[in-house]
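Notes taken during the Thursday session

The instructor put the following on the board and asked us to keep it in front of us for the whole hour. The protein is HTH marR-type domain-containing protein. We were told not to look anything up and to reason only from what is written here. First, the residues (157 in total):
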Amino acid sequence: MNVTSLNNDGQAGRQEMKDTLQFKLGNVTRLVFKKMNSELVQEGIPVMAEQVPILMVVYFKEHDITQQDIANVLQKDKAGIQRSVQTLTKDGFLRIESDIEDKRKNIISLTASGKFVCEKIQALAISFNNQIMEHFTEEERITFLSFLNRVAGIIEK
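Then, after some discussion, the predicted structure tokens were revealed:
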């Protein structure tokens, strides 16, 4: 095997990797977070896009929620969630209270500032989604979302 064929195989492998689901979704996710961070800064919202899922889980909760519950919903490690919750508490968006029944658990809730920020974030997210989706027909949007749901379903099996 010569150097030219190795280079061609390497280039083909690199292109094949760039065309994988992991690479494409990873790239889109990175771009979405970058754009969302930019819009959060522009709107004067002192939250990083990486913290938004935590706030939204608490915002949309239907009952008391613990740090472990948040970690489970987001499928993240408890230590990472704990660091983010502490930061968001220090920033005045979340409140941590001991569970009355089990003192080992902490109940997480939004402060008034946290609720206000979540409402602004929700409006930003919807606006961002609309900005992207306006480039697709209704049929393309339905098909695109259907494909994403199907991929998620396949992975979760």
